[in-house]
């Protein structure tokens, strides 16, 4: 079972190989592709687990769309300070003056002080995320394995604005940078694992996490690509 982003056991034909593979992902840093034709709420549940429980000392970076409520993506008990948690709201186009928030509304509240907006092209987004990762590393005095947890929700938005080759290169650079700090990043890509887009991007990732609903039960299945081993289906905890 995978809980709080940390692995205990999962059903597989070779449990020891699977467990060793999960431990290796945490130790050396990893990138997870999360797929499935499921409601967004189920991905949010899985992502919260991958980001780690509130009592775990994690540095969390979330890259969200404007319409996503932060409370849907982050446990309310997690400390929302820039030292521990940062949220990037990404929009690929600069806002017009009329659409920009007024100075008073732009002042963050105590709750959303960790949030900021990044607009512009992929280069600006990549630079902003790299800066956050570097600052987390500095604040930590060197990040411990799996201390950095990154959730990236914006892949569908990127694909609606940029060609797949540019998005592929962006994901390659981002995942490589996070791995270099022994961090764990998960990227949400709705749709089945066998879909054309997910087959294109899968080689960039160390593991694929499938989400599914059977009857009234949400479930997940992990595929560790380097070890060439998969778990069986097991429940997605609330």
What does this 3D model show about the protein?
- InterPro entries: DUF7504.
- The protein is α/β, with parallel strands linked by helices and 238 residues long.
- The protein has a domain at 32-93 and 109-209: 3-Layer(aba) Sandwich (Rossmann fold), CATH 3.40.50.
- The chain is 35% helix and 26% strand.
- The protein has helices at residues 15-28, 40-51, 70-73, 103-106, 122-140, 155-161, 164-180, 196-201; strands at 2-3, 6-7, 30-36, 59-64, 85-91, 115-119, 148-152, 184-190, 207-214, 217-224, 229-230, 234-235.
- Strands 3, 4, 5, 6, 7, 8, 9, 10, 11 and 12 form a ten-stranded mixed β-sheet that branches. It has a two-stranded antiparallel ribbon with strand order 1-2.
- Strand 5 (85-91), helix 4 (103-106) and strand 6 form a beta-alpha-beta unit.
- Helix 5 (122-140) runs parallel beside helix 7.
Radius of gyration equals 17 Å
Summarize model confidence as the mean pLDDT. 87
Structural class: alpha/beta
Low-confidence stretches: 1-11, 94-111
Task: Name the features.
26% strand, DUF7504, 238 residues, disordered N terminus, 8 helices, 12 strands, two-stranded antiparallel ribbon, globular, ten-stranded mixed sheet, Rossmann fold, alpha/beta
């Amino acid at each position: 079972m995978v809980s709080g982003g940390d692995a205990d056991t999962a059903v597989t034909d070779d449990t020891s190989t699977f467990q060793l593979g999960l431990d290796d992902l945490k130790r050396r840093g990893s990138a997870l592709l999360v797929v499935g034709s499921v409601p967004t709420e189920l991905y949010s549940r899985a992502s919260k687990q991958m980001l780690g429980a509130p009592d775990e000392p994690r540095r969390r970076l979330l890259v969200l769309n404007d319409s996503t409520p932060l409370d849907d993506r982050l446990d309310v008990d997690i400390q929302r300070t820039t030292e521990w948690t940062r949220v990037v709201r990404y929009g690929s186009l600069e806002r017009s003056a009329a659409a920009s928030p007024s100075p008073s509304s732009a002042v963050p509240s105590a709750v959303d002080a960790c949030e900021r907006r990044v607009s512009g092209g992929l280069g600006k987004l990549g630079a902003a995320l790299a800066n956050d990762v570097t600052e987390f590393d500095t604040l930590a005095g060197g990040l411990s394995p799996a201390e950095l947890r990154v959730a990236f929700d914006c892949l569908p938005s990127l694909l609606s604005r940029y060609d797949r080759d540019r998005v592929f290169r962006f994901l390659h650079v981002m995942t490589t940078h996070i791995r270099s700090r022994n961090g764990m990043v998960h990227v949400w890509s709705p749709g089945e694992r066998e879909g054309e887009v997910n087959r294109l991007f899968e080689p960039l990732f160390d593991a694929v996490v499938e989400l599914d609903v059977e009857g009234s039960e949400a479930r997940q299945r992990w595929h560790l690509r380097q070890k060439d081993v998969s778990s069986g289906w097991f429940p997605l905890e609330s």
